[in-house]
Specification:
Layout: E1 2-12, H1 16-21, E2 24-29, E3 41-43, E4 57-60, E5 63-70, H2 74-81, E6 84-87, E7 99-103, E8 115-120
Length: 123
């Protein structure tokens, strides 16, 4: 497996868990704009080594999900801002340009120091 992206969560906005209960995990790198910080899981920004693809493996604290759809600006947003809405709905078409859809139920929680790793099977 090739690691495409790896980072840790450094903070959790006060309302972020509510979105997670609705099947969404909203991430943003440190320095998130004040107006949306309360809804975000804040990342120590990592380097995205290659654009994500359907089928790539996403791990939140070793809980594994597979990407089923990627919005047309999600790779750019993740690379530049750490900002993506992770949707746990197995959709095969992205609902919004900045969303990445995953197969599986959302994690119960994501805490400070939780790890996010994205990997791809090497061919």
């Amino acid at each position: 497996m090739k690691t495409l992206y790896q980072t840790k969560f450094t903070d959790v906005g006060g309302s972020a868990a509510e979105a997670l209960e609705d099947g969404m995990l909203i991430t943003f790198k440190q320095g998130v704009p004040e107006g949306i910080v309360d809804y975000c899981y804040i990342l120590a920004h990592g380097e995205l080594l290659d654009d994500l693809q359907v089928g790539d493996q996403v791990n939140f604290d070793q809980q594994t999900y597979f990407i089923t759809a990627i919005g047309n600006v999600a790779n750019k947003n993740l690379r530049e801002l750490g900002h993506v809405t992770w949707r746990f709905d197995s959709a095969t078409e992205a609902e919004f340009p900045g969303s990445i859809h995953l197969q599986g139920t959302p994690p119960q929680s994501v805490a400070i120091d939780s790890v996010l790793i994205i990997k791809r099977d090497e061919e």
